[in-house]
């Protein structure tokens, strides 16, 4: 019997500023079997971002209405802004046999793993907490100390992820990231939820 391949839900997580987007963007530019999940957020648009490509930007009132309707697979309030993963969009991509890659915070990643046993989690780790603080400062992030406290909490949870990639050198990190996804794809994709 010829079964249609179901896509794999791949969740990439780690502290803000660790390089998740850089690794994901590069991978998606080279891979035809994956799609990026565009999350919803209430935060302000950054100069390089585009609505519907990087995020769906919305206001808090609309976001709360979507929560009430059960629109999100998971959602979180991070540093005073809401972020959410649209459930129907994820399921549609998976059923078409394409893998879908999510870039979400650590708490959201673990929430998805609790709901979707077939989800595969990759943690992107900074070279050091000091280096990450430097990156966030250079990026112009506000309230660095609050973010750094969260970093410690997130790094403490990395053992709950199937894969960890240390981003201390971009080429080495990308090779490890790609290898993790290749390994995920080689695993049997059962009928587990999500």
Structural class: alpha/beta
Total helical segments: 7
What's the CATH class, please? Alpha Beta
Overall shape: globular
Reported for the largest beta sheet, the result is: 5 strands, parallel
The protein's oligomeric status is single chain
What does this structure look like?
41% of the residues lie in helices and 22% in strands. By secondary structure, the protein is an alpha/beta fold. It has one domain: P-loop containing nucleotide triphosphate hydrolases (Rossmann fold, 3-Layer(aba) Sandwich), CATH 3.40.50. Helix 5 packs antiparallel against helix 6. The longest helix has 17 residues, at 170-186.
Question: Would you kindly provide a brief summary of this structure?
Answer:
The chain is an alpha/beta fold. The protein contains seven helices and nine strands; from the N terminus they run βαβββαββαβαβααβα.
């Amino acid at each position: 019997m010829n079964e249609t391949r179901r896509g794999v839900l791949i969740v990439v997580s780690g502290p803000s500023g660790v390089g998740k987007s850089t690794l994901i963007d590069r991978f998606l530019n080279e891979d035809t079997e994956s799609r990026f999940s565009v999350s919803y957020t209430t935060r302000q648009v950054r100069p390089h971002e585009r609505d519907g490509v990087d995020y769906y930007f919305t206001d808090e009132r609309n976001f709360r209405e979507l929560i009430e309707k059960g629109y999100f697979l998971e959602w979180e309030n991070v540093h005073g802004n809401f972020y959410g993963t649209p459930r129907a969009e994820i399921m549609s991509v998976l059923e078409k046999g394409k893998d879908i890659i999510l870039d979400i915070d650590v708490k959201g990643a673990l929430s998805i793993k609790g709901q979707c046993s077939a989800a595969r989690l990759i943690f992107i780790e900074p070279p050091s907490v000091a280096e990450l603080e430097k990156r966030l400062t250079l990026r112009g992030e506000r309230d660095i100390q609050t973010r750094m406290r969260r970093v410690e909490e997130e790094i403490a949870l990395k053992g709950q992820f199937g894969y960890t990639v240390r981003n201390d050198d971009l080429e080495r990190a990308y090779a490890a990231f790609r290898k993790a996804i290749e390994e995920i794809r080689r695993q049997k994709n059962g009928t587990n939820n999500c």
